Amino acid sequence: MVDFKYKPDGERLKSFMRDDTFFRGVRGPVGSGKSVGCCVEVFRRALEQKKAPDGKRKSRWAIIRNTNPQLRTTTIKTWLDWFPENDWGKFTWSVPYTHHIKKGEIDLEVIFLALDRPEDVKKLLSLELTGIWINEAREIPKSIIDACTMRVGRYPSMRDGGPSWTGVIADTNAPEEDHWWPIMSGEVPIPDHIPREQAKMLVKPDNWRFFTQPSGMVEVKNEEGEIEDYKPNKEAENTKHMMKSYYPNLIQGKTKSWIDVYVMNRLGSIQDGKPIYPMFAADVHVAKEEIAIAAGAPLYVGLDFGLTPAATLGQKIRGRWLVQAEIVAFDMGIVRFAEVLREEIATRFSECSDVYIYGDPAGDFRAQTDESTPFHILRGAGLRAFPAPSNSVDLRLESVSSQLNKMVEGKPAFLIDRRCQQLIKGFEGGYQYKRMEVSGERYADKPDKNMFSHIHDALQYMMLGAGEGRALMNNQKPARPVVANRNFDVFNKKPNKQRRQGLWARM
Fold first, then answer.
1. Is residue 270 domain-resident?
2. Are both 254 and 369 inside the same structural domain?
3. Are both 119 and 20 inside the same structural domain?
4. pLDDT digits over 82-128, tens only?
5. How far apart are CA 284 and CA 265, in angstroms?
6. In this structure, are residues 91 and 118 in contact, taking their beta carbons and an 8 Å threshold?
7. DSSP assignment string, 321-347
8. Which residues pair with 135 in a beta bridge?
9. CA gyration radius for the chain?
């Protein structure tokens, strides 16, 4: 029998490892022992696997991380710290990385996969596994989680007795509030904009459990409620395995948002990069009350495509931009998103005189596997959408920043409805130039592609399509967008004799 010693330090971590639920997730601060606990859990399940007829305890696991650099420098490093090659067998460093442990009765195959390459995603979807460990689950979309649940319980074969336990385990630092993890754990409600069918996928099944570890430190506040300092949390987990100075040293020089996520274990975003729009001020650019819809005025819509499509909806009234709504979807195709957008416009913006929709120009190119483009699909749904006049990042950013810096009749030229939370969070630093992994204050020259970039791309396409980009290029007043009227067929290029009634061409 294999001699292996490990004892989790902390009640939440112990409960997580004692549990047999099909899907288990543990969320905690850095240093809380969750990654090590998952490593040991993989091995423990291998030890408890019943013997096959040949006397071996056979199991096969996949360990998943978002990118290859993170997989190699963090996940694999932690694994090999506990299961070094000298003691547990040779590690295969060619892709897919594999560690096949054959020791005594144990026959454990561990496959390490990053998901930044299409071939690795395909590899995952073809595996026959006992279990899967998802390391840092906040980086993984819900669609991948669902795919993982289909690949477990398939090894060993029933000829060898089948798996004694099968399932998915996951660990993570605190994600955003609108991430699938806090929604499914019940910490935040399902967003109203998510369609009913998709919302069903975010209801926690009975065979899922979530565990939340205590924070690494606690806040010390003054009488006014302001944070003056931090002190160690007596309930913090894994403290027996780290220096007392770990957390006090860790928080030095860090922003509150960083400390909240990585030490306090609170839901939120990390503002470690450089904000795209430093001129943005919430008290100036966010409306104190809900922004009303101006009946009889045009509606402008900006769209970003992909599996996380996003839309911004706004009007330009007397020289002022009023952004009244946002739609942010996750793991949704363009066909379903078109229905959601169509319904939003037909209900909330039904009294607008015209609707001008602009999207990513790249969406006008056919996919290799489909003759349709996103714009074809949108037009088929009755949404007259057109490519924005440019995809220049600099021009797109300037079309927004130029309005943030303007005042019209003593009022800001750009105002956002307070309900547009994703857009606002992006303005407040979530949409950023990523800090380069080098010494000094160096940042990427392009906005980081993260959860806030989609809605901000949509905003830029809206502004650019509405003419702000042309004004910048030509140094003239914004021109009225050239868009087909609702009585005009863009395919036949022949106006209908009679104007169609209602907002939609194809209701």
1. no
2. no
3. yes
4. 999 999 999 999 989 999 999 999 999 999 999 877 777 888 889 99
5. 31
6. no
7. EEEEEEEE-SS--HHHHHHHHHHHHHH
8. 171
9. 26
